[in-house]
Amino acid sequence: MSTDPTDFVEEGPAWWDHEAGPVVRPYMVTGGRVRPVTVDFDLITYLVATATLAVDTPSPEHQAILALTQEPRAVAEVASRVDLPLGVVRVLLCDLLSEGLISRYDPPPTDHLPNVETLQAVIHGLRAL
Amino acid sequence: MDSVRSETAPVPQALKILVAGGFGAGKTTLVGAVSEIAPLRTEEVLTTAGVGTDDTTGVATKTTTTVAMDFGRITINPHLVLYLFGTPGQNRFWFLWDELATGALGAVVLADTRRLADSFAAIDYFEQRKTPFVIAVNCFDNDQRYTVEQVREALDVDGHVPVLLTDARDRVSVKNVLITLVEHVLTMVRTTVPA
Protein backbone atom coordinates (compact mmCIF):
# COMPACT_ATOMS: atom_id res chain seq x y z
CA MET A 1 0.00 0.00 0.00
CA SER A 2 1.34 3.39 -0.83
CA THR A 3 2.18 5.64 2.04
CA ASP A 4 1.95 9.35 1.75
CA PRO A 5 5.48 10.56 2.52
CA THR A 6 4.11 13.77 3.99
CA ASP A 7 2.65 11.73 6.88
CA PHE A 8 6.10 11.59 8.40
CA VAL A 9 6.85 15.25 8.12
CA GLU A 10 5.96 17.43 11.04
CA GLU A 11 6.86 20.72 9.50
CA GLY A 12 8.32 21.99 6.26
CA PRO A 13 8.13 20.32 2.84
CA ALA A 14 9.18 16.72 2.47
CA TRP A 15 12.57 16.34 0.82
CA TRP A 16 11.33 13.31 -1.05
CA ASP A 17 8.07 12.71 -2.85
CA HIS A 18 6.40 10.18 -5.14
CA GLU A 19 8.67 11.23 -7.98
CA ALA A 20 11.65 10.04 -5.97
CA GLY A 21 10.34 6.46 -6.14
CA PRO A 22 9.75 4.06 -3.28
CA VAL A 23 11.56 4.86 -0.06
CA VAL A 24 11.34 1.25 1.06
CA ARG A 25 12.71 -1.47 -1.18
CA PRO A 26 9.84 -3.42 -2.77
CA TYR A 27 10.43 -6.83 -1.20
CA MET A 28 10.55 -5.50 2.37
CA VAL A 29 6.85 -6.29 2.80
CA THR A 30 7.45 -9.95 1.96
CA GLY A 31 10.32 -10.25 4.42
CA GLY A 32 12.71 -10.68 1.51
CA ARG A 33 10.85 -13.59 -0.05
CA VAL A 34 10.86 -13.14 -3.82
CA ARG A 35 8.87 -16.13 -5.07
CA PRO A 36 5.51 -17.61 -4.16
CA VAL A 37 6.16 -20.84 -2.30
CA THR A 38 3.70 -23.16 -3.90
CA VAL A 39 1.63 -21.66 -6.69
CA ASP A 40 1.82 -18.92 -9.25
CA PHE A 41 -0.91 -16.51 -10.17
CA ASP A 42 -1.86 -15.47 -13.69
CA LEU A 43 -2.52 -11.77 -14.22
CA ILE A 44 -6.19 -12.56 -14.81
CA THR A 45 -6.63 -15.13 -12.07
CA TYR A 46 -9.60 -13.91 -10.05
CA LEU A 47 -9.33 -13.59 -6.30
CA VAL A 48 -12.09 -13.49 -3.74
CA ALA A 49 -11.59 -13.01 -0.01
CA THR A 50 -13.13 -15.79 2.04
CA ALA A 51 -12.51 -13.87 5.25
CA THR A 52 -13.85 -10.61 6.48
CA LEU A 53 -11.55 -7.75 7.35
CA ALA A 54 -11.71 -8.65 11.04
CA VAL A 55 -9.06 -11.36 10.77
CA ASP A 56 -5.45 -10.78 11.70
CA THR A 57 -3.01 -10.66 8.83
CA PRO A 58 0.78 -10.55 8.86
CA SER A 59 0.90 -7.01 7.42
CA PRO A 60 -1.24 -4.03 6.41
CA GLU A 61 -0.55 -4.99 2.79
CA HIS A 62 -2.20 -8.37 3.31
CA GLN A 63 -5.11 -6.54 4.88
CA ALA A 64 -5.33 -4.18 1.90
CA ILE A 65 -5.57 -7.15 -0.44
CA LEU A 66 -8.34 -8.67 1.67
CA ALA A 67 -10.21 -5.37 1.53
CA LEU A 68 -9.93 -5.22 -2.26
CA THR A 69 -10.99 -8.81 -2.79
CA GLN A 70 -14.22 -8.55 -0.83
CA GLU A 71 -15.52 -8.51 -4.40
CA PRO A 72 -13.91 -10.62 -7.15
CA ARG A 73 -10.81 -8.96 -8.64
CA ALA A 74 -8.09 -10.01 -11.03
CA VAL A 75 -4.48 -10.26 -9.83
CA ALA A 76 -3.34 -7.41 -12.10
CA GLU A 77 -6.00 -5.15 -10.66
CA VAL A 78 -5.13 -6.01 -7.08
CA ALA A 79 -1.44 -5.30 -7.73
CA SER A 80 -2.25 -2.00 -9.37
CA ARG A 81 -4.57 -0.85 -6.62
CA VAL A 82 -2.29 -1.77 -3.71
CA ASP A 83 0.52 -0.10 -5.68
CA LEU A 84 3.01 -2.92 -5.25
CA PRO A 85 5.02 -4.79 -7.89
CA LEU A 86 3.39 -7.96 -9.22
CA GLY A 87 6.09 -10.20 -7.82
CA VAL A 88 5.53 -8.83 -4.33
CA VAL A 89 1.78 -9.22 -4.61
CA ARG A 90 2.15 -12.84 -5.71
CA VAL A 91 4.09 -13.66 -2.56
CA LEU A 92 1.47 -11.97 -0.38
CA LEU A 93 -1.31 -13.81 -2.24
CA CYS A 94 0.42 -17.09 -1.55
CA ASP A 95 0.41 -16.23 2.17
CA LEU A 96 -3.31 -15.44 2.09
CA LEU A 97 -4.04 -18.59 0.12
CA SER A 98 -2.16 -20.83 2.53
CA GLU A 99 -3.99 -19.19 5.44
CA GLY A 100 -7.27 -19.93 3.69
CA LEU A 101 -8.20 -16.25 3.56
CA ILE A 102 -8.72 -16.01 -0.21
CA SER A 103 -9.97 -18.21 -3.02
CA ARG A 104 -8.53 -18.21 -6.51
CA TYR A 105 -10.31 -18.79 -9.79
CA ASP A 106 -7.95 -19.51 -12.64
CA PRO A 107 -8.63 -18.63 -16.26
CA PRO A 108 -9.35 -21.59 -18.54
CA PRO A 109 -6.40 -23.82 -19.53
CA THR A 110 -3.97 -21.96 -21.77
CA ASP A 111 -3.48 -24.59 -24.44
CA HIS A 112 -6.62 -23.88 -26.40
CA LEU A 113 -8.68 -20.91 -27.53
CA PRO A 114 -12.09 -20.15 -26.04
CA ASN A 115 -15.07 -21.98 -27.53
CA VAL A 116 -17.35 -20.59 -30.24
CA GLU A 117 -20.09 -19.60 -27.78
CA THR A 118 -17.68 -17.55 -25.66
CA LEU A 119 -16.21 -15.81 -28.70
CA GLN A 120 -19.66 -14.98 -30.04
CA ALA A 121 -20.60 -13.55 -26.65
CA VAL A 122 -17.49 -11.35 -26.72
CA ILE A 123 -18.29 -10.07 -30.23
CA HIS A 124 -21.86 -9.41 -29.24
CA GLY A 125 -20.75 -7.60 -26.08
CA LEU A 126 -18.25 -5.45 -27.96
CA ARG A 127 -20.84 -4.46 -30.56
CA ALA A 128 -23.19 -3.39 -27.77
CA LEU A 129 -20.62 -1.11 -26.12
CA MET B 1 -7.24 -26.98 -8.60
CA ASP B 2 -6.70 -24.80 -5.57
CA SER B 3 -9.97 -23.03 -5.91
CA VAL B 4 -12.77 -23.29 -3.44
CA ARG B 5 -16.15 -22.33 -4.80
CA SER B 6 -17.62 -19.32 -3.10
CA GLU B 7 -21.36 -19.43 -2.65
CA THR B 8 -21.85 -15.70 -2.58
CA ALA B 9 -19.79 -13.92 -5.22
CA PRO B 10 -20.21 -14.72 -8.91
CA VAL B 11 -16.75 -14.88 -10.42
CA PRO B 12 -16.62 -13.99 -14.11
CA GLN B 13 -14.47 -15.73 -16.66
CA ALA B 14 -11.56 -13.46 -17.60
CA LEU B 15 -10.08 -13.22 -21.08
CA LYS B 16 -7.09 -11.20 -22.15
CA ILE B 17 -6.09 -9.43 -25.31
CA LEU B 18 -2.60 -8.02 -25.75
CA VAL B 19 -1.87 -4.69 -27.34
CA ALA B 20 1.65 -4.66 -28.75
CA GLY B 21 3.60 -2.14 -30.75
CA GLY B 22 6.65 0.07 -30.63
CA PHE B 23 7.26 2.78 -28.09
CA GLY B 24 4.88 5.68 -28.67
CA ALA B 25 2.61 3.77 -31.05
CA GLY B 26 -0.39 4.58 -28.86
CA LYS B 27 -0.93 1.34 -26.92
CA THR B 28 -2.14 2.95 -23.70
CA THR B 29 -4.27 5.40 -25.69
CA LEU B 30 -5.95 2.49 -27.45
CA VAL B 31 -6.58 0.68 -24.16
CA GLY B 32 -8.00 3.86 -22.63
CA ALA B 33 -10.34 4.45 -25.56
CA VAL B 34 -12.42 1.34 -24.80
CA SER B 35 -11.68 0.52 -21.17
CA GLU B 36 -14.45 1.05 -18.63
CA ILE B 37 -11.82 2.13 -16.10
CA ALA B 38 -8.98 4.60 -16.59
CA PRO B 39 -6.00 2.43 -17.62
CA LEU B 40 -4.29 0.94 -14.58
CA ARG B 41 -0.62 0.24 -14.30
CA THR B 42 1.07 -2.82 -12.86
CA GLU B 43 4.76 -2.96 -12.37
CA GLU B 44 7.25 -5.74 -12.21
CA VAL B 45 10.56 -5.13 -10.50
CA LEU B 46 13.37 -7.03 -12.12
CA THR B 47 16.56 -7.70 -10.28
CA THR B 48 19.50 -8.63 -12.42
CA ALA B 49 22.72 -9.79 -10.88
CA GLY B 50 25.85 -8.40 -12.49
CA VAL B 51 27.40 -10.75 -15.02
CA GLY B 52 30.89 -12.07 -14.56
CA THR B 53 31.25 -11.03 -10.97
CA ASP B 54 32.14 -13.13 -7.99
CA ASP B 55 29.13 -14.56 -6.16
CA THR B 56 29.99 -12.93 -2.87
CA THR B 57 29.98 -9.52 -4.47
CA GLY B 58 26.73 -10.18 -6.33
CA VAL B 59 24.64 -8.18 -3.92
CA ALA B 60 26.52 -5.00 -4.59
CA THR B 61 26.26 -5.33 -8.38
CA LYS B 62 22.55 -6.09 -8.57
CA THR B 63 20.53 -3.63 -10.56
CA THR B 64 16.78 -3.23 -10.50
CA THR B 65 14.57 -2.22 -13.36
CA THR B 66 10.88 -1.51 -13.24
CA VAL B 67 8.77 -2.61 -16.18
CA ALA B 68 5.32 -1.12 -16.43
CA MET B 69 2.29 -2.69 -18.08
CA ASP B 70 -0.85 -0.65 -18.57
CA PHE B 71 -4.16 -2.41 -18.78
CA GLY B 72 -7.88 -1.78 -19.03
CA ARG B 73 -11.07 -3.75 -18.56
CA ILE B 74 -14.29 -4.29 -20.49
CA THR B 75 -17.17 -6.11 -18.82
CA ILE B 76 -18.85 -8.03 -21.63
CA ASN B 77 -21.56 -9.43 -19.37
CA PRO B 78 -21.73 -10.55 -15.73
CA HIS B 79 -19.98 -13.79 -16.65
CA LEU B 80 -17.33 -12.52 -19.04
CA VAL B 81 -14.69 -9.83 -18.58
CA LEU B 82 -12.09 -8.80 -21.13
CA TYR B 83 -8.72 -7.40 -20.04
CA LEU B 84 -6.53 -5.45 -22.45
CA PHE B 85 -2.83 -5.45 -21.63
CA GLY B 86 -0.34 -3.12 -23.24
CA THR B 87 2.93 -5.00 -23.63
CA PRO B 88 6.19 -3.45 -22.51
CA GLY B 89 7.71 -1.75 -25.53
CA GLN B 90 11.33 -2.73 -25.13
CA ASN B 91 12.43 -5.98 -26.72
CA ARG B 92 14.59 -6.95 -23.77
CA PHE B 93 11.46 -7.73 -21.80
CA TRP B 94 10.41 -10.64 -24.02
CA PHE B 95 10.12 -12.97 -21.06
CA LEU B 96 7.35 -10.78 -19.68
CA TRP B 97 5.62 -11.08 -23.03
CA ASP B 98 5.63 -14.85 -22.56
CA GLU B 99 3.73 -14.46 -19.34
CA LEU B 100 1.30 -12.04 -20.94
CA ALA B 101 0.79 -14.10 -24.08
CA THR B 102 0.10 -17.32 -22.19
CA GLY B 103 -3.61 -17.95 -22.43
CA ALA B 104 -4.26 -14.77 -24.39
CA LEU B 105 -7.26 -14.73 -26.70
CA GLY B 106 -5.30 -12.76 -29.27
CA ALA B 107 -3.29 -9.63 -29.90
CA VAL B 108 -3.54 -6.27 -31.57
CA VAL B 109 -0.29 -5.09 -33.14
CA LEU B 110 -0.54 -1.34 -33.21
CA ALA B 111 1.60 -0.03 -36.05
CA ASP B 112 2.79 3.51 -36.57
CA THR B 113 3.41 4.17 -40.27
CA ARG B 114 6.21 6.56 -39.42
CA ARG B 115 8.03 3.67 -37.76
CA LEU B 116 6.64 0.51 -39.33
CA ALA B 117 9.77 -1.48 -38.52
CA ASP B 118 8.95 -1.13 -34.81
CA SER B 119 6.13 -3.64 -35.26
CA PHE B 120 8.24 -6.38 -36.89
CA ALA B 121 9.32 -7.85 -33.55
CA ALA B 122 5.75 -8.14 -32.27
CA ILE B 123 4.53 -9.69 -35.56
CA ASP B 124 7.35 -12.28 -35.51
CA TYR B 125 6.59 -13.06 -31.90
CA PHE B 126 2.89 -13.72 -32.39
CA GLU B 127 3.46 -15.65 -35.62
CA GLN B 128 5.90 -17.96 -33.84
CA ARG B 129 3.63 -18.44 -30.84
CA LYS B 130 0.63 -18.94 -33.14
CA THR B 131 -1.26 -16.30 -31.19
CA PRO B 132 -4.04 -14.88 -33.39
CA PHE B 133 -3.44 -11.21 -34.14
CA VAL B 134 -4.59 -8.28 -36.23
CA ILE B 135 -2.57 -5.29 -37.34
CA ALA B 136 -4.11 -1.93 -36.57
CA VAL B 137 -2.43 0.99 -38.28
CA ASN B 138 -2.73 4.01 -36.04
CA CYS B 139 -3.50 7.07 -38.13
CA PHE B 140 -2.49 10.10 -36.16
CA ASP B 141 -4.55 13.18 -36.93
CA ASN B 142 -6.03 11.56 -40.02
CA ASP B 143 -2.55 11.36 -41.45
CA GLN B 144 -3.26 8.40 -43.64
CA ARG B 145 -0.08 8.06 -45.63
CA TYR B 146 -0.49 4.49 -46.81
CA THR B 147 -3.28 2.18 -47.81
CA VAL B 148 -4.00 -1.07 -46.01
CA GLU B 149 -2.53 -2.96 -48.96
CA GLN B 150 0.70 -0.97 -48.85
CA VAL B 151 1.07 -1.64 -45.13
CA ARG B 152 0.32 -5.33 -45.58
CA GLU B 153 2.99 -5.55 -48.26
CA ALA B 154 5.53 -3.61 -46.21
CA LEU B 155 4.98 -5.81 -43.17
CA ASP B 156 4.88 -9.00 -45.23
CA VAL B 157 2.14 -10.67 -43.21
CA ASP B 158 0.08 -13.69 -44.25
CA GLY B 159 -3.00 -12.92 -46.31
CA HIS B 160 -5.38 -14.17 -43.64
CA VAL B 161 -4.12 -11.68 -41.02
CA PRO B 162 -6.51 -8.72 -40.89
CA VAL B 163 -4.91 -5.31 -41.41
CA LEU B 164 -7.00 -2.24 -40.72
CA LEU B 165 -6.66 1.48 -40.18
CA THR B 166 -7.61 2.88 -36.82
CA ASP B 167 -7.55 5.93 -34.64
CA ALA B 168 -6.38 4.73 -31.23
CA ARG B 169 -8.16 7.64 -29.52
CA ASP B 170 -11.53 6.83 -30.99
CA ARG B 171 -13.76 4.43 -29.08
CA VAL B 172 -15.76 3.25 -32.09
CA SER B 173 -12.63 2.75 -34.17
CA VAL B 174 -10.92 0.73 -31.42
CA LYS B 175 -14.08 -1.28 -30.79
CA ASN B 176 -14.00 -2.21 -34.46
CA VAL B 177 -10.38 -3.38 -34.13
CA LEU B 178 -11.29 -5.64 -31.20
CA ILE B 179 -14.33 -7.05 -33.00
CA THR B 180 -12.17 -7.77 -36.05
CA LEU B 181 -9.69 -9.60 -33.81
CA VAL B 182 -12.29 -11.74 -32.07
CA GLU B 183 -13.97 -12.56 -35.42
CA HIS B 184 -10.54 -13.58 -36.70
CA VAL B 185 -10.09 -15.86 -33.68
CA LEU B 186 -13.58 -17.27 -34.26
CA THR B 187 -12.68 -18.10 -37.86
CA MET B 188 -9.53 -19.85 -36.67
CA VAL B 189 -11.43 -21.86 -34.05
CA ARG B 190 -14.02 -22.91 -36.62
CA THR B 191 -11.47 -23.99 -39.19
CA THR B 192 -9.45 -25.96 -36.66
CA VAL B 193 -10.42 -29.59 -36.47
CA PRO B 194 -11.29 -30.33 -32.84
CA ALA B 195 -8.67 -32.48 -31.20
What is the compact description of this entry?
The complex is a heterodimer of chains A (129) and B (195). In chain A, 33% of the residues lie in helices and 8% in strands. Chain A has helices at residues 60-68, 75-82, 86-98, 116-127; strands at residues 46-49, 73-74, 102-105.
Task: Work out the strand percent of chain A.
Answer: 5-15%
* Main sheet: strand order of chain B: 2-3-4-1-5-6-7
Strand order of the largest sheet of chain A: 2-1-3
The number of strands of chain A is 3
Q: Report the uncertain regions of chain B.
A: 1-6, 50-59
Which key phrases capture this entry?
heterodimer, A: about 130 residues, mainly alpha, 3-stranded antiparallel beta sheet, about 35% helix, B: about 200 residues, alpha/beta, about 30% helix
Describe what you observe in this structure:
The complex is a heterodimer of chains A (129) and B (195). With 129 residues, chain A is mostly helical. In chain A, 39% of the residues are buried. Chain A has helices at residues 60-68, 75-82, 86-98, 116-127; strands spanning 46-49, 73-74, 102-105. Chain A contains four helices and three strands. Chain A is globular, with a radius of gyration of 18 Å. By secondary structure, chain B is an alpha/beta fold. Helices cover 30% and strands 29% of the residues of chain B. Chain B is built from six helices and seven strands, in the order E-H-E-H-E-E-H-E-H-E-H-E-H. In chain B, strand 6 (133-138), helix 5 and strand 7 (163-166) form a beta-alpha-beta unit. Classes of the chains: A mainly alpha (129), B alpha/beta (195). Chains A and B meet through helix 2, helix 3, strand 3 and helix 4 of A and strand 1, strand 2, strand 3, strand 4 and helix 6 of B.
Helices and strands, with pairings:
The complex is a heterodimer of chains A (129) and B (195).
Chain A lengths: L45 E4 L10 H9 L4 E2 H8 L3 H13 L3 E4 L10 H12 L2
Antiparallel strand pairs in A: 1-2, 1-3
Helix pairs in contact in A: 1-3
Chain B lengths: L12 E8 L6 H8 L5 E9 L9 H4 L1 E15 L2 E7 L7 H8 L4 E7 L7 H10 L3 E6 L9 H8 L7 E4 L4 H21 L4
Parallel strand pairs in B: 1-4, 1-5, 5-6, 6-7
Antiparallel strand pairs in B: 2-3, 3-4
Helix pairs in contact in B: 1-6
